[in-house]
């Protein structure tokens, strides 16, 4: 009995410690969101006096003001365009490449070549990408920035999709389809895509979040005010000598809400996709 009680105590203690760690981690994650949301209803005087208190009084004009001062709607539209088309391009190309690497070839050199791109700092690629876009007359265009985002995200996407397709698409199913006269292209669209749906959702969710929150490339490649993303539009709220931090917090809230909604919708499929696909054999 003593051994059983000790075992139960250790088990309960371990569960309690895990819950405590998760609670602390959740608090440190959620607190900045709550703090930013509260400050979006304050002015500078309230923020400087006590930024951790509730708004007293609540400044309800920050949200209408930010829509009046900045082209928030245009920034949202541009960000949706950039993220949406990048997700489509990356999911399609990475799933095709993953199918080829996982099922149609056993060589590791090409797979290593794609994965090696994840090791290169993205900032090191700015100059060659800028030169190539200029030579292709795609500088400062929506097409150009979408190509940049697609290239940057492709290594991670291929890594996930190759592992996912290797584990989730049975070789026997593809062999049976080939015996029945199904071509490689038809096998991809009728067999691989439906079975790899969870992996595609995982890749699409991460790519959307990366592009939606991306700032560096947009700052470098987009100088036309009509093409600026929501991130760049929000950045304009920062003044050279002084800033309205209540408006800045409002812009951050507007920027964060779509990303939180997307992740909340697809979080279960993201976890399943990463668990099933992003494990190297």
Could you describe the 3D structure shown?
By secondary structure, the protein is an all-alpha fold. The protein folds into 2 domains: 38 residues; 213 residues, MetI-like (MetI-like fold). It has 13 helices and no strands. Helix 7 packs parallel to helix 13 and helix 10 runs antiparallel to helix 13. The longest helix is centred in the N-terminal third of the chain and has 38 residues. It is flat and about 75 Å long. The two termini are 43 Å apart.
What would the principal axes of the Cα set say about the shape?
A: flat
Percent of residues in helices comes to over 70%
Specify Rg, calculated over alpha carbons: 24 Å
Q: Quick one: how many beta strands? A: 0
Q: What's the CATH topology name of the largest domain?
A: MetI-like fold
Under CATH at level 1, the class of the largest domain stands as Mainly Alpha
Secondary structure category:
mainly alpha
- Unreliable runs: none
The amount of beta strand, in percent, is under 5%
Query: Major beta sheet, specifics?
Result: none
**What is the overall number of helices?**
13
CATH superfamily of the largest domain: MetI-like
| Mean pLDDT reading | 85
How is the quaternary structure best described?
single chain
End-to-end span in angstroms? 43 Å
Count of domain modules: 2
* SSE topology string: HHHHHHHHHHHHH
Layout of SSEs?
Elements: H1 2-39, H2 44-49, H3 62-69, H4 72-104, H5 109-116, H6 126-135, H7 142-168, H8 171-179, H9 184-195, H10 197-213, H11 216-221, H12 230-235, H13 245-277
